[in-house]
Amino acid sequence: MNATFDAAQPLDVDEFAAKASARQPEPTSETVIAASPAQRTLLLAVGRFSARERARLSVIASQANLELDVCEDTKRACERAGAQVPHSILVDVTLPECEAFCCDTRAQSELAQVPLLALSQELDDLSFASTFSWGGDDAVTLRHPRALIERLRGLPKDALVPPSACRGRALVCEAEHTRRVALASVLRNAGYQVTFAVEPDDARRFTRSSEFALIVVNAEFDEHPRALLEEAREAGSEALWILTAPPRRLAEVREQLVGTTRATVCDGFAPPENVLFLANELGRTQGIDNRASARLLYGTRVDFRPAGLEHDDHGYTYNVSLGGLYVRTLSPPKEDVVWLELMPPRSDRRVRLEGQVAWRRAWGPNVSATVPPGFGVQITDGTSRDIEAWKEGYRTFARALS
Q1: pTM for this one?
Q2: Taking the CA of residue 12 as centre, how many other CA atoms within 13 Å lie in the half-sphere pointing to its CB?
Q3: CATH fit for domain 296-401, picks 3.40.50.300, 3.10.20.740, 2.40.10.220, 3.40.50.1220
Q4: Which CATH class is domain 169-282?
């Protein structure tokens, strides 16, 4: 295939596929592209795709220099991934077995670090939140092939290197299987050795151990979770404590923790990376805090593009401050000035802002990382109305959490 993708021009995948088909046979479910044996080059697409969608996937894989295998059922996909560790996995979220497949993938040590991308028809808050809740790394759509190609091109093809457990042991007390596996995946990639407790009695026994540096407990395990924490402290545990609770119980559990140290509460339905954020915040040294405002966990879809360009990409906010935000995405912009559009906290209208990219984090295990892949932005410009709406939304949100 001689046609190439020009990043400076709009990409019409259907036109590209039609031209390619005229030069070579109809693409089958498997297209092989030569690569070094040491590299991971398999793009595994899991779903029941139409002929047009398969053609698009074929072009996308070709542009990312990857081998494509389309599996219509998750059983065959598991067999394919077991035979060859993929470069990345695309999963159609309309598959009934989508969550179970991704959870099983994350639970396998040899596949735990393979990037999982959820294919959705629309990208909204629910698309991103659902993807992250079962351990996915990003949400994408075939309607925006340019964005998907850029993500696949940016992901490394080298052999996976297991993360080192240099941050000590973490205890995850969680009965729900999907949530337990997703939390373990995040914590292992951040440098923790993870132990599970799936029954309340096990949780009571393990939390008293002094071996753990971090303890994450579903508040539903105990009617009075503060008593569980105090028992652990009396037994000599100095671990950081994070209690996860459903939204309806957050205020109640937060009230129970008043007066405790090195302990906090987290929304049990939020992305598992939020637990890592809170662990990092709890573990910060008690020195002078030079931040102008606190960073608060807040998730909503954000549309972003390099300043002056035409096409938006889509990400999901991870945390926000009065003067900036962190955007979760597998494709951070290479340019330093970006335009952003999103909904501020506690607001019912979107704002448009300009920002300076302060730093980027690529995909991959990183024991020093405090955030998932994406980029941090300092807000530098916007209309006075939009900037004030952003600041007021942040202040209202911060007051509600205090």
Answers
A1: 0.86
A2: 6
A3: 2.40.10.220
A4: alpha beta
